[in-house]
Amino acid sequence: MSPSKRLRTTENEAEAATGSREKERGALDVSVTMPMYNASSWLDEGLQAILHQDFLGTMELSVFDDASTDDSRKVVEGWRERLEARGISVVISGHNSAQPRGVGYAKNKAITQSCGQYLCFQDADDVMLPQRVRLQYEASFLHPNTLIGCKVQRVPEGSTERYTRWINTISQDQLITQVYTSHGPTVVMPTWFCSRNWYLKVGPFDEGGKGVPEDLLFFYQSLRQGGSVARVDQCLLVYRYHEKATTHSVTEETIWKLRVDFLQERVLSQWESFTIWNAGKQGRKLYRSLSSTNQEKVKAFCDVDENKIQKGFYTYEESKQRPKPKIPVLHYKDASAPFIICVKLDMTGGVLEENLNSLLLKEGTDFYHFN
């Protein structure tokens, strides 16, 4: 089917209603896959948004209930007739074990039971805007083997303000260069859209359960497989923040180790030497986290703090080497590229960004952000 879908209107709803019959003949165009656990308070808003998608291809909703103890499955079943009347097939399954098996497991199950050629990932607590499926479907034709994202509206307004600004403002190039930052995937998981073939090549999601960053693991594996990242530069999702979100179960140390390993694999393995920009806590932590081979590549730390610079060196006290490694600490203007930047973005009133710009460096060649 052509990527240039028409908008859904009252006159052509009958055409869209052929969706369930299309499923009998073969694969659908798009499966909206939704893992679900105790989401009843959010489902009505999210399901109505799926109902109002203006995409005219064949479409289904595939829900897997990960042992909910509320009436989540009943709520979804209550929408079946309305969704199917609009040509959106509905597949619902789940399990009733004593404990949920985790979001990675539920995502894999929702995908396995679906049949769309493309997958639109949808969290049960988020709300998609009417044009989401159509625009991301169109983008997927232009960007094969790619995780497609979009801009988001964060609710409640003002929650995770820096993170939301980062999601919505990084450039297409930075979707690739900033994959090592602590924010995680540069296109956030609730906005993902990709072909089923690409999921099958990269996946499945890690099913380790609570505390496992299955989205970041999949994201990095996608890049390892030669995949790319792209974003529809429109807000297509209302992205909800709340304390019960599964992301809160993942520890910072788990994410840190994954990021360090990926940085060493993709960047540091290609460099003969480099400078760590930050002689403070985060820079020293990165140094200590590196392999001995990559520690030897660190030619200096750099900073703007005169106290750190005046000390002259950072001594790696935990090292078993004798004498212990002593790494010079320089002013950033006296240091040389390439750099790993261990200063948080958007936290210094623009000072970090101005300093970087003054050196006329190219992100992705002369430096990468790690924090």
From TrEMBL:
Gene3D superfamilies: Spore Coat Polysaccharide Biosynthesis Protein SpsA, Chain A (3.90.550.10). Residues 31-199 form the Glycosyltransferase 2-like domain. It comes from the Eukaryota. Signal peptide: none annotated. Residues 1-25 are annotated as: Disordered. GO terms for molecular function: hexosyltransferase activity. This is UDP-GlcNAc:betaGal beta-1,3-N-acetylglucosaminyltransferase-like 1. It comes from Cyclopterus lumpus (Lumpsucker). The gene is b3gntl1.
